[in-house]
C-alpha cells in the first residue's frame, strides 16, 4: 500500500538549476523514479532506480511495491505544477499523502534568458496536446510561451499562430536544451520561425 510519495521538480535539466531541497530529497531517497536521463544524472548507484517508460500501469505497480517500505522520490522535469506526472499521481493515489518540492520550469528559465518578465504572459503547451482557438487568439501586445513536442515543433506553432491571425512580424524566440552546455536560442519573426524546422523539444516565446 502506498503511504506517501515525494514529487521532486528537478528543473530544466542541469543539476545547477535544481534547488537544494530537491537535491537533499533525491540524495536521501531509497528509490528514485524518473526519466532515464534524470536517473543517470541524479541517482546514486546504491538507490533503486525505476525508469518512467510511458507504461503507467507498470509504474503504478512499482510505486505500490516500493513505497510501502521505502522512501520514494518521483523526479519530474521543470516544476511539478506545470504539465507533469503530479496530476496522474493524485488521481491514481487519491488517499496518499503527496509532498511536492518545486523546481524551475524551463519556461521560467527561457524568460530569464530573454530578460523578459513572465507575470504578464500566458503559458500554453503543444506538448502532446493542442490549445483551443480562443487560447491562441491574437491580441496586440500579448505574450505567450509554449512547450513543443516532436510533431508540434516551434515552426509548426509559428504557422498555427499566423493562421490564427497573429501578424507575421510578431517576435518569436525558440530555446532548446535549456541549462545544458549545448543550449541553443534563435530569435526572429513568426514568418522566419516557420522555417526553423528543428526546434522540437523547446520553449517558444511569442510577443505580439
Automatic annotation (TrEMBL):
Superkingdom of origin: Bacteria
Name by which UniProt lists this protein: Cobalt-precorrin-7 (C5)-methyltransferase
One Pfam short name: TP_methylase
Annotated organism of origin: Negativicoccus succinicivorans
This protein's UniProt keywords: Cobalamin biosynthesis, Methyltransferase, S-adenosyl-L-methionine, Transferase
Entries under PANTHER family matching the protein: COBALT-PRECORRIN-6B C(15)-METHYLTRANSFERASE (DECARBOXYLATING), COBALT-PRECORRIN-7 C(5)-METHYLTRANSFERASE
Limits of the Tetrapyrrole methylase domain: 4-192
Methyltransferase is among the record's keywords: yes
One Gene Ontology molecular-function label: protein methyltransferase activity
Enzyme class at the top of the EC tree: transferase
Any one biological process term the GO annotation gives: methylation
Entry annotated with the keyword Methyltransferase: yes
UniProt pathway: Cofactor biosynthesis; adenosylcobalamin biosynthesis
EC number: 2.1.1.289
Amino acid at each position: 500500500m502506498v503511504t506517501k510519495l515525494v514529487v521532486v521538480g528537478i528543473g530544466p535539466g542541469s543539476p545547477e538549476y535544481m534547488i537544494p531541497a530537491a537535491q537533499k530529497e533525491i540524495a536521501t531517497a531509497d528509490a528514485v523514479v524518473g526519466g532515464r536521463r534524470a536517473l543517470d544524472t541524479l541517482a546514486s548507484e546504491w538507490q533503486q532506480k525505476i525508469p518512467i517508460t510511458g507504461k503507467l500501469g507498470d509504474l503504478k505497480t512499482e510505486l505500490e511495491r516500493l513505497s510501502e517500505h521505502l522512501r520514494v522520490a518521483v523526479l519530474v522535469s521543470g516544476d511539478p505544477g506545470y504539465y507533469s506526472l503530479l496530476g496522474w499521481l493524485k488521481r491514481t493515489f487519491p488517499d496518499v499523502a503527496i509532498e511536492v518540492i518545486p523546481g524551475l520550469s524551463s519556461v521560467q528559465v527561457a524568460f530569464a534568458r530573454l530578460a523578459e518578465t513572465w507575470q504578464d504572459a500566458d503559458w500554453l503547451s503543444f506538448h502532446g496536446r493542442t490549445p483551443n482557438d480562443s487560447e491562441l487568439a491574437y491580441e496586440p501586445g500579448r505574450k505567450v510561451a509554449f512547450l513543443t513536442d516532436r510533431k508540434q515543433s516551434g515552426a509548426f506553432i509559428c504557422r498555427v499562430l499566423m493562421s490564427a491571425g497573429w501578424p507575421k512580424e510578431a517576435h518569436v524566440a525558440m530555446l532548446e536544451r535549456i541549462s545544458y552546455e549545448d543550449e541553443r536560442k534563435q530569435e526572429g519573426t513568426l514568418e522566419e520561425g516557420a522555417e526553423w524546422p528543428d526546434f522540437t523539444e523547446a520553449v517558444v516565446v511569442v510577443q505580439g
